[in-house]
Amino acid sequence: MAALSHEPGHDPRLAQLKTWVAGLGAAWQIDPDSCAPASADASFRRYFRVRTAHPDHPTAIVMDAPPAHEDCRPFIHVAALFGDAGVTVPTVLAQDLEQGFLLLADLGSQTYLSKLDDSTAPGLYGDAAAALVKLQAATRAGELPAYDRALLQRELDLFPEWYVARHLGVTLTDAQQADLREVMDAIIANNLAQPQVYVHRDYHSRNLMVMPDGANPGVLDFQDAVIGPITYDAVSLWRDAYIEWEEEQQLDWLIRYWERARTAGLPVNADFGEFYRDFEWMGLQRHLKVLGIFARLYHRDGKDGYLANLPLVLKYTRSVAGRYTELRKLLRLLDTLEGTERPAGYTF
Questions:
Q1: What pTM was computed for the model?
Q2: How far apart (Å, rounded) are the C-alpha atoms in residues 300 and 312?
Q3: Among its keywords, does the record have Plastid (predicted)?
Q4: Closest Cα to residue 123, out of 251, 247, 246, 210?
């Protein structure tokens, strides 16, 4: 989730970063004054682009991950896992874990989001689906943390805490809280019952890069990867908070992924209708979480850029909540909170 956020005035971390890159040696000859903002996470991490004298890396990316808040080691570990799987990720060129700096290969500045349209989408999404299958097929137990019940619940709890209470200013009644808990329990039961594979957790159009050499996609922002439900990254990709496609088009791309995954021997449900149900229920978990995260980014972190994406995330949430009997209590709660109509959609 990329968003630029820089405080005015003195920036001691940036000064520290410039000193570090200047000292990386003759092979790099990095000009610290070339350091320019590339992007920032919805976290404490920031990224800067620098010019170098290295023949293979005329530019590079420096990750600034303050050790008090961030740990670079998961990024390094997941980069190796995903790279070994045949996925394009930024190579770690130099590191200083004590200071919280990484020098990374530059995958460019062309995000999927900046290039997706009706003509480019089939090819770009086809590449993203192929890379996702590679990533999932490389799953090895014990390499990544589990996307367990506690983590799924913590994420869902962001919805009542930050979206409902803080953003909407609503205190849920005991009955509403009980209804929400019932729906959350059903969602988590579905999520945990799905086959478990490597999960990027933010496999969407802002974290996938269009590569100049065609090795699409370049994959970023994977440091929070886990082993979890097989539908999670597909939901991130085709029910993206930042770009909307008609459900018929989502289905076409999802079926193509499902067929590719089956051919690769991945444990997707052999019945597409059941697989689509899992996809939708996983999406509901993700979108309730995202509503909470976007509200928190605004109210706690002062980042208002994500508020514009709330309506699409709510649209996804309402569509799924209205489609399954077990989720209707959530739709009634949303009706009370929002006072909006449920959109039409396909039924399975």
A1: 0.91
A2: 22
A3: no
A4: 210
Predicted pLDDT at 7: 44
Q: What is the pLDDT of residues 12-58, one digit of tens each?
A: 899 999 999 999 988 899 989 999 998 765 568 899 999 999 999 99
12-105 domain in CATH 1.10.132.60? Answer: no
Tell me the two tokens of residue 207: 């974290």
Structure-block tokens of residue 287: 């979108």
pLDDT above 70 (res 277)? yes
In whole angstroms, give the CA distance from residue 302 to residue 342. Answer: 30
Cα dihedral: 64, 3, 314, 240 (round 10): -80
Q: What percent of the chain has pLDDT over 70?
A: 93
End-to-end CA distance of the chain: 31
- Beta-sheet pairing, 57-64 with 101-105: antiparallel
CATH fourth-level superfamily of 112-338: Aminoglycoside phosphotransferase (APH), C-terminal lobe (3.90.1200.10)
pLDDT of residue 40: 61
Q: Tens digit of pLDDT for each residue in 309-320?
A: 999 999 999 999
Residue 116 phi, psi dihedral angles, 5° rounding:
-70, 125
- CA distance readout (Å), 25 to 13, 84, 312: 20, 28, 48
Which has more pLDDT, 344 or 339?
Answer: 339
Residue 117, C-beta contacts closer than 8 angstroms, at least 6 positions apart? none
Per-state percent for the chain, helix, strand, coil, to nearest 5: 50, 15, 40
User: Average pLDDT over the chain, rounded to whole?
Assistant: 93
In the chain, domain spans = 12-105, 112-338
Q: Which of 254, 286, 295, 260 is nearest to 272 (CA)?
A: 254
Whether 346 and 247 have beta carbons less than 8 Å apart is answered as yes
Q: Which position has the higher pLDDT, 26 or 182?
A: 182
* 12-105 and 112-338 in the same fold: no
Residues with Cβ within 8 Å of residue 38, at least 6 apart in sequence: 47, 48, 49, 61, 109
> Which pLDDT value is given to residue 4?
38
